[in-house]
């Protein structure tokens, strides 16, 4: 038994390096998309100090809006622009209806408010677009189709073009947002709001404006993640389960760290694929559904602040 767990998987990796590369590639693509979703959580957490439970359903809602508008006869690129507008309206609505009345309330109140927002978006999405899975309009959005096979280490490694596009686009968005929120005036204001709402208000920073910008940015991230995940499978409310994989990513990387979201996403994505392919047969498969949470639990036990989070010491 110990041989099967500790030695045989590594023997398989060495004997079939092409399969190892294929597994690593698929893990890296999934990891980048996890990191993209986690970035939406990080942005909102940095601005309000609250974990936005609704980020997962925002991924689904954005993708459903895009596909639903196209099904109504709207051209794909126009539907994309209109969906961006819908996410901006959602950001303004959340700031006016949810955040502004609850400013300076305990964090648990805002956290529970995001639960309410989650179930509102589920009900509203089902009312407008129905509950049946839909096919992402990847071809209409000019996303690449097909695949390329490369002969590596004596075997064929297949690279799906949509996976390559997903990795490139997600990486670009992460890089742009990282620079925007670290080097610009808005980014400095965001850090001030994250440190103290009252102090930010005292120096003339508008909480409402910052919250709208951050929630809109999180909405754009959700839209891109929804397009990419939808193109790899389909668009349905089951996507919010995939989106919640961002929670262990955040635990690994730290709730306030953009680099942490990237590293955590890659660790989770690669670990899931390696675990499922090389160790899945020992437990009957399904490792991808729970391995991320086991890794997160270990981090909570031994390094609760994550890889890039700050250790908070409270003195009494």
Automatic annotation (TrEMBL):
* Record carries keyword Glycosyltransferase: no
Which superkingdom? Bacteria
List where the protein spans the membrane. Answer: 20-43, 50-70, 76-99, 108-129, 164-182, 203-229, 249-270, 277-302
**Topology class, membrane:** Multi-pass membrane protein
Q: Does the keyword Protease apply?
A: no
Q: Which UniProt keywords apply?
A: Amino-acid transport, Cell membrane, Membrane, Transmembrane, Transmembrane helix, Transport
Q: What's an example GO cellular component term for this entry?
A: plasma membrane
Give the primary localization class.
Answer: membrane
Q: Where in the cell is it found?
A: Cell membrane
- Which GO molecular-function terms appear in the entry? transmembrane transporter activity
Give any single GO term for biological process: amino acid transport
> What family is it from?
Belongs to the binding-protein-dependent transport system permease family. LivHM subfamily.
Query: Known PANTHER family for this protein?
Result: ABC TRANSPORTER PERMEASE PROTEIN, BRANCHED-CHAIN AMINO ACID TRANSPORT SYSTEM PERMEASE PROTEIN LIVH
Identification of the protein by name: Branched-chain amino acid ABC transporter permease
Q: Which organism is it from?
A: Microvirga brassicacearum
High-level lineage: Bacteria, Pseudomonadati, Pseudomonadota, Alphaproteobacteria, Hyphomicrobiales
């Amino acid at each position: 038994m110990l041989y099967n767990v500790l030695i045989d998987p590594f023997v398989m990796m060495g004997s079939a390096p092409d399969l190892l590369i294929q597994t690593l590639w698929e893990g890296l693509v999934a990891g980048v998309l996890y990191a993209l979703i986690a970035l939406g959580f990080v942005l909102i957490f940095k601005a309000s100090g609250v974990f936005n439970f609704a980020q997962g359903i925002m991924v689904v809602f954005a993708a459903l809006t895009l596909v639903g508008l196209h099904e109504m006869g709207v051209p794909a690129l126009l539907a994309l622009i209109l969906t961006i507008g819908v996410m901006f309206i959602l950001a303004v609505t959340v700031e006016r209806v949810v955040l502004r009345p609850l400013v300076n309330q305990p964090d648990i109140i805002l956290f529970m408010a995001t639960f309410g927002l989650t179930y509102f978006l589920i009900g509203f999405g089902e009312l407008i677009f129905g509950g049946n899975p839909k096919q992402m309009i990847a071809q209409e959005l000019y996303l690449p189709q097909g695949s390329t096979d490369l002969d590596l280490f004596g075997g064929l490694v297949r690279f799906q073009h949509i996976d390559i596009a997903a990795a490139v686009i997600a990486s670009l968005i992460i890089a742009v947002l990282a620079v925007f929120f670290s080097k610009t005036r808005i980014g400095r204001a965001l850090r001030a709001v994250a440190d103290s709402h009252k102090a930010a208000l005292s120096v003339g920073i508008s909480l409402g404006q910052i919250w709208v910008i951050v929630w809109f940015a999180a909405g754009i991230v959700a839209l891109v993640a929804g397009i990419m995940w939808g193109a790899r499978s389909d668009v349905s409310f089951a996507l919010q389960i995939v989106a919640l994989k961002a929670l262990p990513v955040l635990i690994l990387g730290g709730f306030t760290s953009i680099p942490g979201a990237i590293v955590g996403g890659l660790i989770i994505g690669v670990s899931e694929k390696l675990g499922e392919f090389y160790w899945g047969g020992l437990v009957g498969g399904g490792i991808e559904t729970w391995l991320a949470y086991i890794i997160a639990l270990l981090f909570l036990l031994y390094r609760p602040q994550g890889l890039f989070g700050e250790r908070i010491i409270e003195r009494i």
